[in-house]
C-alpha cells in the first residue's frame, strides 16, 4: 500500500535535514563508544571521570536513541508510518539520557552551555515525533 498524497517539498527538506542530524548523532555515539584510551587521556579530568563512569544502560539508551532516530529518518524517506514509532523510541531514550546526565551522574556539572545541547536534542526529538504523526495524518506516510 502506498501513501495517497504526494509529500511536499518541505516534507522532503525536513526529512533530509533530520537524516543528517541523526547521522551526526550516530557519529557522536560511535566516537564515544569506541573512544581510545589515548583520546580519553586528552580530555579534562571531569570528562574522563564521566566517560569512565557511564553505566551500560545509559550507553544502551544513547545507542537506541541515535539508531532509532536514524532508522526513523529512513522510514520518513521511504514514506512509512513506522517512522513515528522509531521517533518515539528515540525520544524516550533521549529523555532517559537527559535524566541521567542532569540528575543522576555527579562527575560533570551540567549547567549553562552544557545544558543547551541536550535540551536542543530533546526539542528536535519531540519535533520529529510530531512531524511524523502530522505526515501520517496528511496521508504522506503509509
Defining key terms:
mainly alpha; 6 helices; 77% helix; elongated
Task: Give an account of the 3D structure.
With 142 residues, this protein is mostly helical. Helices cover 77% and strands 0% of the residues. It is built from six helices and no strands. The chain has helices at residues 9-33, 37-41, 45-53, 56-77, 82-104, 113-137. Helix 1 (9-33) runs antiparallel to helix 4 (56-77) and helix 4 packs antiparallel against helix 5. It starts with 8 loop residues before the first helix and ends in a 5-residue tail after the last helix. The mean pLDDT is 90.
Write down the oligomeric state.
single chain
Shape: elongated
Total number of beta strands: 0
Order of helices and strands: HHHHHH
What structural class is derived from the secondary structure elements? mainly alpha
Set down the secondary structure blueprint:
Blueprint: H1 9-33, H2 37-41, H3 45-53, H4 56-77, H5 82-104, H6 113-137
Helix pairs in contact: 1-4, 4-5, 5-6
Compact description:
With 142 residues, this protein is an all-alpha fold.
Amino acid at each position: 500500500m502506498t501513501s495517497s498524497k504526494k509529500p511536499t517539498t518541505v516534507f522532503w527538506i525536513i526529512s533530509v535535514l533530520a537524516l543528517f542530524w541523526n547521522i551526526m548523532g550516530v557519529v557522536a555515539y560511535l566516537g564515544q563508544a569506541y573512544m581510545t584510551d589515548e583520546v580519553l587521556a586528552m580530555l579534562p579530568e571531569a570528562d574522563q571521570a564521566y566517560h569512565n563512569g557511564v553505566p551500560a544502560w545509559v550507553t544502551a539508551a544513547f545507542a537506541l536513541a541515535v539508531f532509532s532516530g536514524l532508522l526513523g529518518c529512513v522510514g520518513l524517506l521511504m514514506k512509512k508510518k513506522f517512522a513515528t514509532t522509531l521517533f518515539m523510541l528515540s525520544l524516550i531514550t533521549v529523555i532517559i539520557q537527559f535524566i541521567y546526565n542532569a540528575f543522576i551522574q555527579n562527575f560533570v556539572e551540567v549547567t549553562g552551555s552544557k545544558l543547551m545541547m541536550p535540551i536542543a536534542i530533546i526539542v528536535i526529538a519531540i519535533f520529529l515525533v510530531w512531524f511524523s504523526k502530522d505526515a501520517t495524518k496528511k496521508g504522506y506516510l503509509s
